[in-house]
Specification:
The chain has three helices and four strands, in the order ααββββα. The protein is an alpha+beta fold and 94 residues long. Strands 1-4 form a two-stranded antiparallel ribbon. Strands 2-3 form a two-stranded antiparallel ribbon. The longest helix has 16 residues. The protein binds zinc ion. Zinc ion (ZN) binds next to loops.
């Protein structure tokens, strides 16, 4: 848990400095940065950011946390996304 907070902290620092970093880029591969000032957990509907996937899912904005998944639960790992995209390609061709 403290490690998560460290990651969070370093990301916030990077953004605050207006910089980018390899670490930030890595985080953004699978996550979105959602700055907010909510003091209580706040549900927010999202659409999966994977091209061609319109799945709706919900993230809960938690105080002091700005890193959230950008893909629906079905597409949270590389492999699932590759399979989905290759099917999409296939559908477009045929
Ligand atoms: Zn998806």
């Amino acid at each position: 848990m403290s490690r998560d907070l460290d990651i969070e902290h370093s990301i916030v620092q990077t953004l605050r400095d207006g910089k980018t970093s390899e670490h930030l880029k890595r985080v953004q591969l699978e996550n979105q940065i959602v700055p907010h000032n909510f003091k209580v957990p706040m549900p927010r509907p999202q659409t999966c950011k994977l091209q061609g996937c319109m799945a709706q899912f919900e993230i809960i904005l938690v105080p002091r946390q700005i890193i959230y998944p950008k893909y629906c639960p079905d597409h949270r790992n590389d492999h699932q996304r590759e399979v989905f995209l290759s099917r999409l390609d296939h559908d477009l061709i045929t």
